[in-house]
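Researcher: Go.
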Amino acid sequence: MPYLFKNKLPEVDEIVIGTVFEINNYGIMVKLPQYNNIVGYISYNEASRKKKFNVKRLFMINKDILLIVINVDEKGYIDLSKRSINEDESTYFENKNKRYIILYNLFRSIYMKLNNLDNINNIQDDLLEHFMNETLWNIKNNNDKLNNDKLMDSDEIYENIFNKNYDIILEHKNRDFIIDIIDKFVDSKNKQKPYNEKMFKLMSYNSTGLDDIKYILSGYNVNYMTNSIYKLTADISVNIDDIIDEIQKKSHEKNALFTLRIN
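Model: Structure:
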């Protein structure tokens, strides 16, 4: 099975998907399907915020749950927690993970086209991993002259690709072919998508901060994500950048801190 991420092990504070496969006297054992089913462990102290809970109801065998990594030791043993994740973090992870899977599947399909493969079962894991290391896992920001060696976050890559901003550093001998496939993919997706999205961070330290933020966001289709991050959704027939400009002006009017983010 090919690796889904460049890193072979998750990092501390990272949210991961775990599949429960064993409950014993010491805790709950899970496999991490996005990390080649490596095993992780949840102690009962980290299983729930409640002092009393039904472990078999909360952790059903073969059930997928969101967990946060609290420790990864030098031998690769992974300690996990369920009690530390809140709803906002879960929503943010689910959105980010969904976008990453779209990117991964896109680049995997590009690899298959480059190698004339018509069946996913014919993929050689090591060759696909090598391709990902040259492409998806190695994309840099061509516009950031000070940090042009810094790898782009998957959300940044997603935003650039779906806005057809291909001015990114993609060092591959078949770059033009890859960009052409991406362009056709984006066109097909945009035909299906009746709306646009933008993410931004909005904060206010004023005594009337909550009311100010309600005023700034009133009249727009905005959802709170996590850590003062919001998602604006607009019909594709509407220029979403004009709405962002309006929100930015209202933020300035109320002395609130507005920062446009990558979806």
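Model: The CA atoms of residues 58 and 230 lie 30 Å apart.
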